[in-house]
Amino acid sequence: MSKNKFEIKREESFNRIMKAGMEKFCEKGYSATSIQEICEHAGYTKGAFYLHFKSKEDFFLKLLEFRSQIRKDWSSPVDEVDQYTSLEEAVFKRINNFLELMERSEQWNTIYMEFYLRRQNKSEIRQVYHKFYMVWIEENTLFIEQLMKKGWISSEKGANVLAERWHALINGVMIHKVLYDVSPDTDELIEMFLKMVR
Description:
The protein has helices at about 5-30, 35-40, 45-50, 55-70, 75-80, 85-105, 105-120, 125-150, 160-180, 185-195. It is mostly helical. The chain folds into two domains: about 1-55, Arc Repressor Mutant, subunit A, CATH 1.10.10; about 75-195, Tetracycline Repressor, domain 2 (Orthogonal Bundle). α1 packs across α2 and α7 (about 105-120) crosses α9 (about 160-180). The longest helix has 27 residues, at about 125-150.
């Protein structure tokens, strides 16, 4: 069923406000950015903002979902493994994909942590972040299961356990970059992962 004019305009305003919010948060941080600034940047009134969102916090949570959809453009862990002829090649590509994503999201990673640190006392916020964590674990588990099916790594430790360790390593790299502006060494990351799975 085709969308009517109201639905098209509503979707357009939602996307523009989302994009504006992402840009303003990355520019000033979560706490320093006001709803008014987001609206002005998007070219809408506060009325348009509250048509979509209950509050600034609600907006940010929907922004997390919005970015999650953008992230799905990243190639499937299952599809990408079929392209490679060795464990080293698959791991190299996976890590490069991560580093490219981290580079594009460098400012966003800071905002992501800022919001959580200011709202971690709320159980609903912890649940949202845990949900994203589980999505990442599932993606990594699928990737590692494909490596196991290829016979490139042993299934002795379990794909889920390795996925959790892999995510902890990657998360540490991201935090290290945000706090100290130290870029990770690709070769070292590959070596760490290979040691982890062998």
